[in-house]
Every structure is written in structure tokens, then in C-alpha cells.
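MFS transporter (Pseudomonas parafulva), 405 aa
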Amino acid sequence: MSEILPARTYLYFIAQSVNLTTAVMSVTMAALVGAALAPDPAWATVPYGFQFLCVMLATYPVSWLMERIGRRRAFMLGALPLAVSGVSGFLAVQHQHFFALILSHCALGVYIAFANFNRFAATDNLTQHLKARALSLVVAGGVIAAVAGPALTGWLRDVGGYPLFSLCYAVFIGLALVSWLIALCLPKEMPVNRPQQGLQASETVRPAPRRVLVVAMSVAALGYGIMNLLMIQASLHMKGMHQDFADVRMAIQWHVVAMFAPSFFTGSIIKRLGIKVTICAGLGLFVVSTALNMGSSSYAVMTAALIALGLGWNLTYVGGGALLAQALQDSPCAMRLQGKNDLAIAVCATLGAFTPSLLLDTAGWKGTNGLCMVLCLGLLLATALRLPAKPGTSAPKLQTAPRPR
């Protein structure tokens, strides 16, 4: 049994590094540029909000498109909105045009919706024991992005002769070219199996039991939403405690490292312990993180809680994705179900991005952590009770329609 990942896995790793680099850059500069161009300060985060909205709206249509034209062509097409984002963002800053900035972040959101499928595409046609390793490696592209994103923003932010941040958007054009070239180098795909004429996909394809799919999607989506919520609220809470900005940034950086660095060996953890134990460990780390936050508000404890939160996110995100990939087993309906999975993640991530301030004002820091603890404990219990010990092997094999002659 081969233990070697195919070369295309590393292409997806590079592609995901490009994707996450653009996302990190947008986080760094969106609100600052928005505040400079917005007609009212209250509109400063509107472009970034539209970016999340477009990720959410484009995710399922992108999965539908991939099912019909294949991964390779879809990823090549997906590089186009990134180039549009670069051109419109550069022009927006150059001419001080707020609505062009909104267009730029909308286009970036569409690109991210395409690129988020890199992790699932890397698992296509791999044996079951390699799927988790491939997905884990692709998610590890976040480590490159954590370095490259802030570095590019810092180098290009203030270049003589250009308005602030204009070249940060312009670099998206170059990254779009890199993304297109990576997609061009991907191997050509086999034709997608089509359901027999007159039959619904649900009649020709029977994935793993519904409870396995629900657990996979719930773990990845709720884990992402809770991570987003607590990460953003932690920075707000630290600022409210008059913590120095450099300290807040350092705590968040440790959190980001904890999110992505383990991906280099999460696949090995899944292989040794199993997906169920890995997911439960991730949810357990979420509970530990919320308990630490409820027990103390000191900087050291909050930093430790953010690290535990990042580790928990990694195990639930990679574990949930690996569970879904193994459960679907390359069926013709896989891309649609992956689209539903990423739509759920986008919805929860958006809620996690928009609610921290509201919950901090209403429930407070400890109240928010208490709510998240209850959600995590409920999900942990459901996972322990509903997920088979070896979901990748105990699920019945898919019944797919024969290839048309």
C-alpha cells in the first residue's frame, strides 16, 4: 500500500498558500483602507463584510460548477476574480473610490470560495488512508500565509509614488497568475460519473450514514464559527483591559501558529488515533480554552487559551474535512456535498465574525465563553455517541452509477 502522496497534492498546498495569503492580507488592510475611503466611519468594515457574504453566496454554485467542468478548469476560472480584485482594489485606492473597494472585496470573496476547495480536491481518487494526510498538508498552507501575508503587506504598504496600500491590492494580480499557472499544471481529470438517466443522485449514490455526514459538517462549521468568535472577541477584550497592541498582536500570532502548524502532522495523528478520537480531542481543547477564559482574564492565561483554541480548530477542521472526504469516497455527488459543507462553514464563520462585539456587550466575556462551552460539550457528546469508532471503514461503500459507454 503506497504511503507516498502524489505530486498534485503539493500543487494544492501551494495553491492553498496563495489563497490564505490573500485572506491574511485582506484581514490586515481591509478595515484600514475602508476607514480611509468610506463616506462615514461606520462603513469601514462594509467591504470586508461583503467579502464574507460573497464567499457564502458563491460556495455552493462553485461546487456545482466543479461537478460539471472539473476541478482543473474551475480553479483556472477561479483565478479571474482574484485578478479583478487586484485591479479594482488598486484603482479604488488610487482614485479614492469606496464602491470600487467593495467590488474588490466581493471579487476576492468569490476567488476564496473557489480556492477553499483545494483541500477536498487534494483528496480526490486517493486511497482512504491517504485522504487525511493530503487534506492536512493542504491546510498547512496557512503557515506560509501567516508569514507571507503580513510580509507582503508590510513591504508594499507604503511605496514611494503610490497611495497607501494600493500596491497591496495590485499584488493580487500577480498572485492570480500564480494561481492560474498552478491550476494549469494540475493533471487532467477523468470524466465525472453521471447518475443513470431518470434516477436522482440520491438513488444512485448512497454515502455513509447521514449521522456521519452531519457530524462531519457540524464539527467543521461550528468549530470554525466558535474559533472566529472567540479569537476576535479575545482581541477586543484585551484592548478593553488596556493591553498593549504589541501584546495583543503577539497573542493572536501564537493563536494563528497553533491553527496551522499542527497540520504537518495532523494526518499522522488521525492515522494513529482515528478520526473520532482526533475530533473529540479538538472539541476537548475548545472546552479547555473556554474554561481558561472563564477562570482568569490575565494576559498569560488568555494567550494559553488562544493557543488551545487554535489547536482545537485544527483538529476539528482537518478531522471534520477528513471524515467527510472518507465518507463520500469520490462519489459523483461528492462535490455538491462538499459545497454544502463549505457553505455551512461560511455561514458559521460569518456569524462568528459579526457577533463578537454584540455578545461582548450583552453576555460579556465570561458569558460568551460559557455559551461556547455548552455548544462544544453538546457537540462532543453527539460525536462520541453518534460517530462510529472507525467511520472511514464502517460506512457502507457507495453505489455509483456505471460509466456511460
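The domain at 207-394 is CATH 1.20.1250.20 (Growth Hormone; Chain: A;). Confidence is low (pLDDT under 50) at residues 191-205, 392-405. ok done for today
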